[in-house]
Structure formats: C-alpha cells, structure tokens
Amino acid sequence: MPVSRLLPLLLAVMLLCACSVSTPADGVPAEQGTSPASPAPQRLVLPYVSEASLNPLSTTSRINQELGALLFDPLVELDDSLEPSLVLAESIDVDGLTVTVRLKPGLTFHDGSPLTSQDVLDTLSRIQAGGTNYDARMDGVESIQAADEQTLVLTLLSENSLFASLLEIPILKAGDDSSAPVGSGKFSYDAQNGLLLRNDNWVGGPVALSSIRLVQAPELQEAPLSLGSGELSLMTLFGAKLSLEGVRYVSNNLIFLGVNPSCAALSTPELRRALSCALTRSTLIDDNVASGGFVALSPISSKWYLYDSSAVSRGADAAYTESVLEQAGYLLTEQEVRETSGGRPLSLSLLYNNASSERVALAGSIAAQLSAFGYQVSLVEANPQEYASLVQAGTFDLYLGEIRLTPDMDVAPLVQSGGALNFARFSSPTLDSALQALKSASPEQLQSCATVLIAALDSEMPLIPLYFALGEVALGEPSLRSVLTPTPTNPLSGLEHLSLAP
Q1: Exposure winner among 32, 253, 305, 330, fewest CB in 10 A?
Q2: Which long-range contacts (CB under 8 A, 24 or more apart) does 222-225 make?
C-alpha cells in the first residue's frame, strides 16, 4: 500500500470514542455488572446523518457507514474475534495467489433483481480504484474477473492465506452510484418514511425486527438527553468523553510506541523488551484515556481467533527491566538516572502529536514511568504536519502512534523489512520469515503459524504495543444489551434479533 494511503491511518487522532472504563492489568475491561431484565421495547430508533450519503463505500459519516451493516450484505461477516463466516459467499478458496469466490444461488437485492458476480465485481473494482472507505482491503489485489454469474476470481499481488477476512465489504448493485444505493441486507431503506424495513428474503434467514425508525443524529453533547428521553434507542461512540451506560467492544485501533533500533537504549530486543516491561499499561490507560482501552502485550489483538497467549512472555515486570538494564551496563547513579561506566546515559526521545490533549498527557505519563527506572526521556512535541514529517523521515527514538489494523491482523507494513510504515527501517529475517509463513499457510497450518508469528513479534520487539482503543454502543434502551454483540467492524451486530413488544 502506498505511504500516502497508510500514513493517515497511523497518524489518526480518534475524536469520537467510548466512555471511561477501568482496565485492569490483564487487559479485560472492568465488568459493568448485571441488571434485571428489561421489558422489550415498543420501537427501535437509530441515528443517521440526513445530509450525508448512505453509500457505505463513500459516505463521510461514521454513523451512516455503520448503518450499512444493516442495509448491505458482505461476502463474509466477522464475529468479535474477527473469525469470518460466509454470508453472500457459498465458498471462498484461497490457493496461493488465486482467490475463488462462489456465490450462494438465488441471491437478490431489495428490489428483487438478482445479485450476481457482476455486482460483486463492480463493488470491488470501485474499491480497487481508490477513494473509498475500504481501500485497504483491496490493496493486495492485482486483478478481479467474473468467471460466470456465481463465480469471481481474484489474483493477489502476494500470498495472503487470511484474505477471506478482508471480504467483509458491503456489496452494492452494479452501476448504482446514488446516495442511497440498493442493497441486499437484513433491512431495506424507506426514504419517504425514514424507516429501515425488514427484508423477508434475507439470505441469512428470518429477521425478528420488523422495522427501525431513523432520526437525525444529535450533536455529541446532546446525546445523553436524546438517549435518556427515549428519542434514541442507542448511539455508537468512539472517543467521546461521556458517562453513559452501554456495551463496549475492542476495536482494531492499536496505540503503540514505534521504536528506532539505532537508538542505543533500543538497540537490542532485550533492551526494547525491558522498556516494554517498564510500562504499566493499565495505569497509562486509567490515567489518560477517557474512552478506556484494552491492554496490548502484542501488536496482534488477544481477541483475535488465532491469538496464542502462550507466545507472549511478560507484561509489566520491574525486576526484569532492572536486570536487563544492569546487564547492559546501565547502572543507577545517585541522581536516580542510569548510565554506563563510560558515562553514556540511558537516554531517548519520545515524539508525539500534540493535536490531542489525551496524547499529550499519555506521552507525559509514559516518560514519567520510564524515568522511574532511570531513563532520561526528552519529550518532542509536534503539530500533525511536523509529526508526520518526522515519523516518515525516521527522525525519532520513540514515537507515539496509532494504526487501524485490517481484519486479517496484518502488521507487516509496520514491522516487515521494507514495510510501508516501517519508518525506522527495522529488519529481522526471523520476523520476515514468520510473517511470510502465515501468509502462505494452509488452513491446517494457520494456528501454528500465527503462534510462531506472535512469538517472533514478542522476541524481536519491533514496536511496543500499548493498548487497543475501545468503542461503545451507548444505550437508551437497556433491553438491547441482551441482543447486541458488537464487533470491531460492526457495532450494530445482533440488532436484527430484537423482538419488539406488541
């Protein structure tokens, strides 16, 4: 993927997130407690942005894009562990550089017209051309062809055994470029009445909920009133500093410290791991992150269905940090700083983007935790443009970064030799080999190859993961808690199972 596409993902400052949540050291958000079962609601009301498009490929509204999961079917859908299951696709065969997708027979759009491979081809080709909300999913595709009405063949630029996970893409009717295109999902859009209406021919089977009313999304500061009054049944949040009851979920947004191995204090895997173990991530989150976070000890999310916790060695470990630093010759002086016998200090700089007050505070807390172990940390504050320039040039020891990982948990751009986001030019043959082994693995080899990759990331420490951001579905209707199963890619998952009161 070109750096021009990837860099905005890395530099993103998420301003619309979830509410505060305490996060203990094991990374699991604190339990919200249980409440008595609530009676079924008489209606379901969701927000939308009337002036923005409902086309999920091009809309500029996060809220409208999330509604797309109700209106448009993908080839596969992902659960909260990012494991794919088939929706429009009857089968997906990944064989080296060739991906063969076969559609289920008899698929139709809401208007009754058939959904064929030509519609899928049109949607994926639009994404491949760029400028959509799903560009990253198709960057590894060289060509797409419709073999027949039910079969699509994609040729990849390089192997990716997990490519099926990237096909959770809403499929639109070919040639429909309107602001409210025809879909095939659980609900159809009734623009005249501001409703989503049940699709009785949905490929996934019966939908319990008959209709959903849409109302104009309130301003963020007005959301608590709208939810509390019953005007809204729920509202998805990401980065908001509100105190609302809701259902939280772990996103794919990784907040991490990028490392430059040319810095003496970060020059070996042991020194990088020592720094990682000096950080108490739960404290960093609780003290600085209003929306909460899910502690990350690996750049691969522990929620991922192929994650293996046994491949990760340790979290915060003060004794380990002190032992490694002493073995490396960094001894604690009377001034409570560390330096070698030759007088070389254990010093490094931490670059951060000052566009977010939360990131400013987080950088300060990281520096304070490291200073407690004798590190001499100089904070480098930069505006977004300066920050981007310095990161891309590799002018840093540490930088505080963020990236939204694709559903296949592909960290190669960040850590692989020559990776588009590997700005410090980190290189490890062991890690490169593990990355390639997973990409070329057979279905039977996926778990073992994922374990090897996670272990290699832990061993080499090409970056220092901090946490995955949390999202939240804030609830005005408590009974929704029993049906909602939000995922990193679909916060509205499960709503179709809601039964309204008569």
Answers
A1: 32
A2: 223/474
Q: Is 139 helix (H, G, I), strand (E, B) or coil?
A: coil
As given in the structure block, the two tokens for residue 203 are: 């490929």
Q: How, if at all, do strands 398-404 and 347-353 pair?
A: parallel
Q: Which DSSP helix (H) or strand (E) runs through 65?
A: helix 62-71
> The sheet that has 141-148: what strands, in order across it?
89-95, 98-103, 151-156, 141-148
User: Which residue in this structure is represented by tokens 């809204």?
Assistant: 232
Structure confidence by residue, pLDDT tens digits, 176-218:
989 999 999 999 999 999 999 999 999 999 999 999 999 999 9
Q: Contact, 379 vs 363, CB < 8 A?
A: yes
CB 399 within 8 A of CB 348: no
> pLDDT tens-digit profile of 27-62?
434 334 444 566 778 899 999 999 999 999 999 999
Cβ-contact 159, 100 below 8 angstroms = no
User: What does the alpha-carbon distance between residue 245 and residue 474 come to, in Å, rounded to a whole number?
Assistant: 6
Q: What three-state secondary structure class fits 152?
A: strand
Amino acid identity, position 268: T
SS3 48: strand
| Locus of tokens 């200073």 | 371
Structural contact between residues 395 and 387, judged by C-beta atoms closer than 8 angstroms: no
Sequence-separated (6 or more) residues with CB below 8 Å from residue 77: 84, 85, 87, 168, 490, 493
Residue 213's SS3 state is strand
Amino acid identity at 69: A
Whole-structure pTM value? 0.91
